[in-house]
C-alpha cells in the first residue's frame, strides 16, 4: 500500500512529501525522505519493546500496561518534587496532558529545549525574533547563512526543500542565484559548497557578530585586522553581501547556542539581523533538531506562559532557566521521581545527573530501548508519532503540521498512556 | 435536560428592544425558552443589570503571533500569575495572558463569545489548538487574505469569481470565520522589506493596489454570502496624517448588504491621525466619525488606547518594524509565505507622552462622535491599545463626562490643543453600552441568527449578570461603581450553565468553534484548478493535502454553511 504526503517525524524540517510503501506491517520503500528519515521510517517496527518492562532485582521483567501505568502514577504521586522531562519527539496532545499533569502534581516540566535551543529562547526574550516561515525563504532569499550548524548531516533536506537547492517564486534557478555563507569552527560538508566559508576560532562567535554589526553600522574603523581568526577583509565582504542581498535568511544551530557566550551569541545575532533590516530584508531561524521540540515550546507557552522549564511547586507557573531546568534539578539532586517522555537524556546529560536518575524512581515512555533505559525502573513502549500514531507537530518555523500514521502495530499512543497515568493521578489529587 | 431560571433580572437586550425591563429568563438545555419547570435551578438576579453575554468582535487571544507574544515576554507572564485552584488552571500574563487566563478574565467580565482578529491560513491549526484550551467562550477566527498570492493574481487578471473561489476554499480548509485584510498589499511588500503608503500604491510584483484588493474582497464576501463583512485593518496604520488614507478607503466602500455593513473597519483610533509628523500629530476623529455617520455600510471599532504596559501584535509586519525603530525595546516578526506577515513589540503608553495622550483621546472621540452605537464597537484591539481587562474603565469613560475630565487633567498638558475630547458632552447610556459590547458586535459579525448577542427565545443562553442597580446608580457621577460592576459579574452564564460566580471560576467548560463553510457548487472548486494546485506545489512549503485543518482539531464545532451565488 502506498501512502503519499506523509510527514517525516525526525527533525524540525517536518518534510511532508514523504511516500511510504507498506506490505502488511512492514515498510518496504520510502521515497523523498533523507537518509535519517528513511532510516527511521524503514525501521518503523524494528527494535521496539514488545510491552512494558520493570526492574526485577538486577534484571528486568515484563509487565502489563495496567501495571506499568499504575506504577508510574504511584511514583509521581509519592514524589515531593517530580520532574517530567523530554516531550520533543511526541505529539502536541501528549505535551498538553503532560503540562496539566505537572500542574496538578506541583512538579516541574521541561523539554529537551533546555539542552539545545534554550539559549536561543533566552535571547529572544531579551530582543525578540525577526523570523518567517520556510516557504518565505524558499521563494525569496538570495542569501543564506548557516552559522554553527551542518544541515547536510543534521537536517539533510533543509537545503533542498527550503534554501540552497530550492527553486522559488523569485528564484527560478536557486543554486546559481543564491549565495551561501557558512560560518563554523571547522570545515563541514555544508561549508564545502559555500560561496564564502568563514572559519572562526572556537568561542569567537560573539566577537565576530559584534564586528559585523559595527561594519554594517558604518563603524568598521573600530574593527581590528582580525577577529577570532577572521580577517577584517572577509568580515567587510560578508557585511556587504548581507546589505546588498534582497532577502537574507540566517540559520543557526547548537554550534552557536552551546558555544561559549551561549545566549549572548544569539542575542548578538538577532541584533545584527535587526540592524540589517534597516537596509534590506533579513530573517533568522533556529535549526531545531527534534521534530516537535518547537511544539513543546508552543504548547507549554499557551498553557503556562513559558516555553520550557516550568515549575509548578508553588501552584503558580514559575520559570527560571538555570534553576528550573532539568539538568540543574538533577544535578542538585532535587527531584525525587522522574518521568521521561520521548527523549534520551541518558545519551546527553552530564554523568552527575544520570547518577541521580538511577537513584530515584525513573519511568521512561519510549518505543525502543535507548541509552536511558538502563537508568530507569520502568519503561512503557508507545506508538511512534508519524508511524503508528498521528498528532500535531510544529516545524522549526512554527508551522503546525498534522503528522499522520501509516502502520498499526497495536501500541498505545503517548497521549493514551499519559492520559491514563493522568487519570490515576486525578483519582488521588482531584482538584 | 438541564433547566435554569434567572429571576427578577433587570434586562437590557437591544436586539429585542428590551431596555430596562424586570423579567425572568428561562433556560433549557442551553437555550432561552418561554418557561421551565419547578425543578429548575434558580439564580436570583434581583437588582442586577442583566445583559446578553459579551461579544468581542476584534481581539487577539489565540494563534501564532499571540503565542509568540507570550514566548518572548516572561516579564509579562510574571505580572499575571495566579495559582491553580479547583477547576481553574494556574494563569500567567497581563497583556498576553495564557489561554486559560484570557478565558477566565473574559468570563469574569461577562464575555462569552470572542473573535480572534487575525489567523494566517497556513498556521490555522495553531489557532484551533489554542481555541481548544480556551474553555469558557465560543471562538471564531478571521482569516488573513491581505497578501494572498492566489487572490492578488486573480484580481490582476480581472477574475472576480476566482477571488471568491479561493476565499471560499480557504475558509473551509482552515475553518475560518470571515475575511480579514491587514494592510492589504503592504504585508506582501514587507516580504522584501517594503511597505505601501496608501490604497493606490501598487503591490510590488503583483500589479494590484490595496483598494482593488479591498473592493474585490468585498464583492467576494457578498458572493459567498458570508455572515460577517470584510474586516479591514486599513493601510498606513499609526502614521501622522493617515486619516486621509482612512477616509479615502471609506469613501470607496459600496453598500451591498441590507442586513449588515459591507465593511468592518477595525481599531480606527490607529487610523484617525492628523498632522504631518510626530510634532504636529493631532486628532482627526471628527472627519472620520462624520464619514462613518454618513456611510451606513461601515461599522468601526474603537481600538481604544489606555495608559500602561501592553504588547502590540498585528499582521501588519512593516508597521511593527517602524514602531520598533521608535521604541527600540524588542521586536519579533513572522512573515507567512504567500499569505501575510506579522510583528510584535511591547509598548508602554504614557500619560506624560503627548502622542500617547492624543491616541487615548481619539478612541473616546470616535465612540462619542459616531452617532449610532450600532456603528461603533467598544474594543482596545486587545492587546494593542490595552489589555481587554480595561474595558470596564472605557465603559465608564464613555458614560461619564466627569470621569473623562478627571482623566484628561492627568494627561500631557498640550493634549487639549490637539483633540476635541474636552468639548464632547455626550454620555452614553446603558443601552448604548449594551449595543457596543454585545448586541452591535453580534449583529456586525452576523451571528445573531445563531443566537448570539441577544436574549430572545431560542437564543444561546449566554447571560451576564452584573451587580449594579441601574435605577439607583448615576453612571455620570458614580463611575467607580460602573467600573466595579463591569469588572466582575455576579454570574456569567454560558450555554445555560453558570461558569463564574462573583469572580470565581465554577467549571472547566468547552467552547464551540464557529466557522463558515461556503458551498460554491460545481465548476467553482478551486482545489481542482491546475494553476492553483501548481501554485501550491511550487511555492508553499507544505503539500496541499496537508494544508486543511482536520475536524478533530475542533472539539465542538458549529459550521455555518452558506450558499455562494456567483
Structural summary, described in words:
The complex is a heterodimer of chains A (431) and B (566). Chain A has 16 helices and 22 strands. Chain A has helices at 35-42, 65-78, 92-105, 118-127, 134-140, 151-154, 158-161, 174-177, 205-216, 232-244, 254-257, 263-276, 293-304, 326-331, 351-359, 414-428; strands at 2-6, 18-23, 26-31, 53-56, 59-62, 82-86, 108-111, 130-132, 143-147, 179-184, 196-199, 226-227, 230-231, 247-252, 281-286, 310-311, 318-319, 337-341, 362-365, 378-380, 391-394, 400-403. The termini of chain A are far apart. Chain B is of the alpha/beta class and 566 residues long. In chain B, helix 13 crosses helix 14 (401-408) and helix 13 (391-399) runs antiparallel to helix 16 (479-487). At the A-B interface, helix 3, helix 4, strand 8, helix 5 and helix 13 of A face helix 1, helix 3, helix 4, helix 11 and strand 16 of B.
Brief overview:
Chain A has 431 residues and is an alpha/beta fold. Chain A has 16 helices and 22 strands.
Offer a few descriptive terms.
heterodimer; A: 431 residues; alpha/beta; five-stranded parallel β-sheet; 16 helices; 35% helix; globular; B: 566 residues; nine-stranded mixed β-sheet; 24 strands
Shape of chain B: globular
Structural class of chain A: alpha/beta
Q: Largest chain interface and its two residue counts?
A: A-B, 65 and 65 residues
Number of strands of chain A: 22
- Individual helix count of chain A: 16
Question: From the alpha-carbon coordinates, what is the Rg of chain A to the nearest angstrom?
Answer: 23 Å
Helix content of chain B: 25-40%
The largest sheet of chain A is: 9 strands, mixed
Biggest sheet: strand arrangement of chain A = 5-4-20-19-18-6-7-16-17
| Computed CA radius of gyration of chain B, to the nearest angstrom | 22 Å
- How much beta of chain A, percentage-wise? 15-25%
Amino acid at each position: 500500500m502506498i501512502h503519499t504526503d506523509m510527514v517525516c517525524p525526525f527533525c524540525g524540517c517536518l518534510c511532508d512529501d514523504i511516500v511510504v510503501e507498506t506490505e502488511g506491517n512492514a515498510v518496504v520503500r520510502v521515497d523523498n525522505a533523507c537518509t535519517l528519515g528513511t532510516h527511521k521510517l524503514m525501521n518503523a517496527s524494528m527494535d521496539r519493546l514488545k510491552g512494558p518492562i520493570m526492574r526485577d532485582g538486577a534484571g528486568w521483567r515484563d509487565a502489563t500496561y495496567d501495571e506499568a501505568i499504575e506504577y508510574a502514577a504511584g511514583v509521581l504521586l509519592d514524589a515531593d518534587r517530580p520532574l517530567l522531562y523530554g516531550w520533543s519527539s511526541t505529539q502536541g496532545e501528549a505535551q498538553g496532558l503532560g503540562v496539566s499533569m505537572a500542574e496538578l502534581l506541583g512538579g516541574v516540566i521541561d523539554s529537551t529545549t533546555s539542552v539545545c535551543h534554550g539559549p536561543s529562547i533566552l535571547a529572544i526574550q531579551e530582543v525578540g525574533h525577526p523570523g518567517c516561515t520556510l516557504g518565505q525563504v524558499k521563494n525569496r532569499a538570495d542569501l543564506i547563512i548557516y552559522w554553527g550548524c551542518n544541515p547536510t548531516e543534521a537536517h539533510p533536506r533543509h537545503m533542498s526543500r527550503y534554501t540552497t537547492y530550492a527553486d522559488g517564486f523569485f528564484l527560478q534557478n536557486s543554486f546559481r542565484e543564491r549565495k551561501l555563507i557558512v560560518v563554523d569552527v571547522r570545515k563541514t560538508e555544508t561549508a564545502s559548497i559555500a560561496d564564502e566559508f568563514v572559519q572562526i576560532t572556537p568561542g569567537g562567535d560573539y566577537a565576530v557578530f559584534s564586528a559585523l554589526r559595527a561594519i554594517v553600522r558604518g563603524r568598521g574603523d573600530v574593527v581590528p585586522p582580525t577577529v577570532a581568526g577572521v580577517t577584517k577583509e572577509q568580515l567587510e565582504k560578508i557585511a556587504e553581501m548581507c546589505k546588498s542581498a534582497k532577502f537574507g535568511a540566517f540559520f543557526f544551530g547548537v554550534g552557536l547556542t552551546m558555544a561559549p557566550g551561549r545566549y549572548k551569541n544569539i542575542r548578538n545575532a538577532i541584533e545584527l539581523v535587526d540592524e540589517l533590516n534597516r537596509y534590506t530584508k533579513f530573517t533568522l531561524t533556529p535549526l531545531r533538531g527534534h521534530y516537535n521540540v518547537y511544539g513543546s515550546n508552543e504548547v507549554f507557552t499557551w498553557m503556562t506562559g513559558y516555553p520550557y522549564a516550568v515549575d509548578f511547586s508553588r501552584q503558580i507557573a514559575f520559570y527560571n532557566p538555570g534553576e528550573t531546568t532539568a539538568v540543574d534539578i538533577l544535578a542538585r539532586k532535587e527531584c525525587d521521581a522522574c518521568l521521561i517522555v520521548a527523549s534520551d537524556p541518558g545519551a546527553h546529560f552530564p554523568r552527575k545527573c544520570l547518577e541521580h536518575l538511577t537513584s530515584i524512581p525513573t519511568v521512561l515512555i519510549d518505543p525502543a530501548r535507548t541509552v536511558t533505559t538502563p537508568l530507569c525502573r520502568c519503561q512503557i513502549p508507545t506508538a511512534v508519532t508519524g508511524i503508528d500514531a498521528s498528532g500535531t507537530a510544529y516545524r522549526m518555523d512554527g508551522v503546525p503540521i498534522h503528522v499522520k500514521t501509516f502502520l498499526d502495530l497495536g501500541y498505545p499512543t503517548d497521549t493514551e498512556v499519559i492520559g491514563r497515568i493522568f487519570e490515576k493521578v486525578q483519582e488521588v489529587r482531584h482538584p | 435536560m438541564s433547566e435554569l431560571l434567572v429571576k427578577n433580572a433587570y434586562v437590557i437586550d437591544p436586539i429585542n428592544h428590551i431596555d430596562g425591563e424586570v423579567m425572568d429568563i428561562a433556560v433549557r438545555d442551553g437555550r432561552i425558552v418561554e418557561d421551565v419547570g419547578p425543578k429548575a435551578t434558580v439564580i436570583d438576579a434581583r437588582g442586577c443589570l442583566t445583559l446578553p453575554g459579551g461579544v468581542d468582535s476584534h481581539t487577539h487571544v489565540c494563534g501564532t503571533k499571540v503565542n509568540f507574544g507570550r514566548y518572548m515576554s516572561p516579564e509579562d507572564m510574571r505580572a499575571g500569575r495566579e495559582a491553580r485552584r479547583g477547576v481553574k488552571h494556574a494563569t500567567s500574563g497581563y497583556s498576553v495572558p495564557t489561554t486559560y487566563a484570557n478565558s477566565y478574565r473574559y468570563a469574569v467580565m461577562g464575555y462569552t463569545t470572542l473573535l480572534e482578529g487575525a489567523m494566517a491560513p497556513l498556521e490555522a491549526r495553531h489557532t484551533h489548538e489554542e481555541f481548544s484550551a480556551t474553555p469558557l467562550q465560543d471562538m471564531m477566527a478571521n482569516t488573513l487574505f491581505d497578501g494572498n498570492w492566489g487572490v492578488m493574481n486573480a484580481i490582476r487578471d480581472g477574475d472576480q469569481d476566482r477571488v471568491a473561489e479561493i476565499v471560499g476554499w480557504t475558509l473551509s480548509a482552515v475553518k475560518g470565520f470571515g475575511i480579514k485584510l491587514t494592510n492589504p498589499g503592504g504585508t506582501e511588500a514587507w516580504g522584501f522589506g517594503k511597505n505601501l503608503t496608501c490604497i493606490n500604491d501598487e503591490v510590488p510584483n503583483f500589479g494590484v493596489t490595496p483598494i482593488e484588493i479591498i473592493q474585490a474582497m468585498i464583492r467576494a464576501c457578498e458572493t459567498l454570502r458570508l455572515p460577517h463583512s470584510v474586516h479591514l485593518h486599513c493601510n498606513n496604520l499609526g502614521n501622522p496624517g493617515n486619516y486621509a488614507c482612512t477616509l479615502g478607503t471609506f469613501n470607496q466602500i459600496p453598500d451591498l448588504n441590507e442586513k449588515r455593513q459591507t465593511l468592518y473597519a477595525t481599531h480606527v483610533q490607529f487610523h484617525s491621525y492628523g498632522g504631518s509628523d510626530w510634532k504636529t500629530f493631532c486628532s482627526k476623529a471628527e472627519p472620520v466619525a462624520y464619514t462613518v455617520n454618513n456611510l451606513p455600510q461601515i461599522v468601526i471599532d474603537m481600538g481604544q488606547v489606555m495608559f500602561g504596559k501592553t504588547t502590540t501584535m498585528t499582521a501588519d509586519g512593516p508597521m511593527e518594524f517602524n514602531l520598533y525603530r521608535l521604541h527600540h525595546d524588542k521586536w519579533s516578526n513572522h512573515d507567512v509565505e504567500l499569505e501575510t506577515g506579522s510583528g510584535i513589540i511591547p509598548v508602554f503608553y504614557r500619560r506624560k507622552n503627548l502622542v500617547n495622550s492624543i491616541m487615548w483621546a481619539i478612541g473616546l472621540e470616535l465612540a462619542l462622535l459616531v452617532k449610532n452605537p450600532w456603528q461603533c464597537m467598544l474594543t482596545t484591539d486587545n492587546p494593542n491599545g490595552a489589555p481587554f481587562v480595561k474595558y470596564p474603565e472605557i465603559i465608564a469613560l464613555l458614560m461619564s463626562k466627569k470621569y473623562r475630565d478627571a482623566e484628561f487633567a492627568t494627561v500631557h498638558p498640550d493634549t487639549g490643543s490637539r483633540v476635541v475630547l474636552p468639548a464632547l458632552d455626550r454620555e452614553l447610556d446603558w443601552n448604548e453600552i449594551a449595543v457596543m459590547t454585545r448586541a452591535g458586535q453580534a449583529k456586525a459579525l452576523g451571528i445573531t441568527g445563531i443566537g448570539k448577542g441577544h436574549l430572545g427565545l431560542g437564543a444561546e443562553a449566554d447571560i451576564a449578570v452584573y451587580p449594579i442597580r441601574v435605577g439607583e446608580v448615576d453612571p455620570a457621577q458614580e463611575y467607580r461603581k460602573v467600573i466595579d460592576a463591569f469588572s466582575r459579574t455576579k454570574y456569567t452564564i454560558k450555554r445555560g450553565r453558570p461558569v463564574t460566580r462573583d469572580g470565581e471560576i465554577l467549571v472547566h467548560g468547552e467552547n464551540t468553534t464557529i466557522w463558515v463553510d461556503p458551498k460554491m457548487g460545481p465548476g467553482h472548486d478551486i482545489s481542482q484548478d491546475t494553476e492553483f494546485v501548481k501554485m501550491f506545489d511550487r511555492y508553499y512549503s507544505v503539500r496541499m493535502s496537508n494544508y486543511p485543518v482536520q475536524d478533530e482539531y475542533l472539539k465542538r464545532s458549529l459550521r455555518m454553511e452558506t450558499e455562494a451565488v456567483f
